Amino acid sequence: MRTPARRQTVLGIVAVFAIGPAFPGPAPSLAQDATPDFGTGAERKMIHIVPPTRGYLQPFGGRVEIQTLIIHPLITAVDFLLDGERMWRAAKRPYIGHVELAEPARRQELEVRGYDALGELIGTDRMILNQPDVALGVRITSLRRLPAVKYPALRIEAVVSVPRSAQLEQVAFYLDERKVEVAYEFVGDAAPGAPRLIPIETLAEYTPGDDFVRVAARFADGREVEDAHILHGAEYRDEIDIQLIQLQVLVTDRDGDPVPDLKPADFEIRDGGIKRPAENLHTARDVPLVLGLAIDTSDSVVPIWQQVSDLSAGFLEAALSPGDRAFVVDFAGTVRLASELTGYKVLLQSRVRSLAPRRGTALNDAILFSLLQYGREPGRRALVVVTDGVDQHSRSKPKQSADFAERLGLPVYFIQLDRGTRRRSVSRAIERRQHLRRLRYISRHTGGRLFDIDLSGDTPPWTERIERVFEQIEEDLRHQHVLTYYTDQPQGAATERSVRVTRRNLKLRSAVPVEAIE
């Protein structure tokens, strides 16, 4: 069942496969990336805004740092504009600017423009800050028992909140478990792409045996949300202003393996110093997956490229179930979107197998670029990055990709494939240790793991060990959970929140608020 009640879940995983040079010796001669092919469509955007930092569900206001991701290598200067007025120019990497936003917060348009050394405009990106929106949900606003005419009647009024990214499909009314009406047409809807608050109501026959009323809203992507109120002794119910909070949680045992048989009672939640009961604990089976696959096509993977591409294509076949979707990114010295988000597995696999190695490795740029592809897509989110591990050509800093991954709450899985017996210079050994420390830091702070696989061993073959890693990622995906609870804290309030797992010998690896990228 993919649509249990009160379905608002979004999960995220990032898995990074680091592949070191498999064999010694010079790399084959490949074309340089000086004039890269950026493809067509959405991947043509040469500069991206990295959504700025803010508190959970809080508006943007005051002085804000704006980070960018530069895709085109000829961009040497970036202008930052607010509501059409230039506020800042950055002329060196990593092209970070600052803008002063209105206080109190209001809707404002942020724009960045990238220029080459001759002052020619190469690319732009825009982002609306503090765009009014609503959280996915339904709330019963009033219950009225009406004077009996032919039969005792109950008027049920509710409001369904529909974010810009969602489409309302139906709303069902229940008295206890008896369905009394289903609505399919809705008035008061806003223009396409705008947030909506849709009022709905029904008149139902009331009997003394009815103890509660329930309203369930279902959306086109399969998510469901509901609200319920007890009827006993109530002649009238005023609006109750509460909101459902979602926390992505990952719980492991002593061996670090995900725990499958969790229950809401296994968690203790405190919000604003008040103990809150867990409302539900949703599993990954209930929510469609949005999967990203970013593949390093640098020259260091040439000796093993055929096997890596086949294994990656096979992973897409195994990981995607009906209703799931994926996109493919390939990167060397530059980053490209090889396939936009789609559920067509044959197309995705074909795009993976058609990629060809180039020069360079821009790992940090690839992580940032891939994370930005998710936008406001609902559902579980996972990213697998197949790479040679050591960044050489990124225009962003390692801390940018690490901070953004941690901020989004996406568990990051690193798998370092490397020839352990290969002799290295002192400088290369230091570089590799620093690289592994960065991977270990990101994995630890996002609830992921770091795997290190030696390509030189042959028992079992390294291809078989990569397959096992893919299977481990699938296993982790199956054991991700979203924990939900209700709070009466105002939306946007700076609230201290703590979560702990109460069962012995279990560890809460991560518990982060679920929030889509702006």
Protein described:
With 518 residues, the protein is α+β, with helices and mostly antiparallel strands. The chain has three domains: 14-36 and 285-481, von Willebrand factor, type A domain (Rossmann fold, 3-Layer(aba) Sandwich), CATH 3.40.50.410; 58-129, Immunoglobulin-like (Sandwich); 137-222. The chain is built from six helices and 28 strands. The strands form seven sheets. A seven-stranded mixed sheet has the order 22-21-20-23-1-24-25, with helices on both faces. Helix 1 (305-319) links the parallel strand 20 (289-296) and strand 21 (325-331). Helix 1 (305-319) runs parallel beside helix 6. It is globular, with a radius of gyration of 25 Å. The model is unreliable at 1-11, 21-35, 39-43 and 233-241 (pLDDT under 50).
Q: Main sheet: which strands, in order across?
A: 22-21-20-23-1-24-25
Mean of all residue-level pLDDT scores:
79
Give the total of beta strands. 28
How many DSSP helices?
6
CATH architecture of the largest domain: 3-Layer(aba) Sandwich
Oligomer type: single chain
Q: How many domains would you count in the coordinates?
A: 3
CATH topological fold name of the largest domain: Rossmann fold
Helix and strand content put the structural class at alpha+beta
The low-confidence runs, each spanning 5 or more residues with pLDDT under 50, are 1-11, 21-35, 39-43, 233-241
Q: What is the CATH level 1 assignment of the largest domain?
A: Alpha Beta
The CATH homologous superfamily of the largest domain is called von Willebrand factor, type A domain
Proportion of residues in helical segments: 10-25%
How does the overall form come out from the CA principal axes? Answer: globular
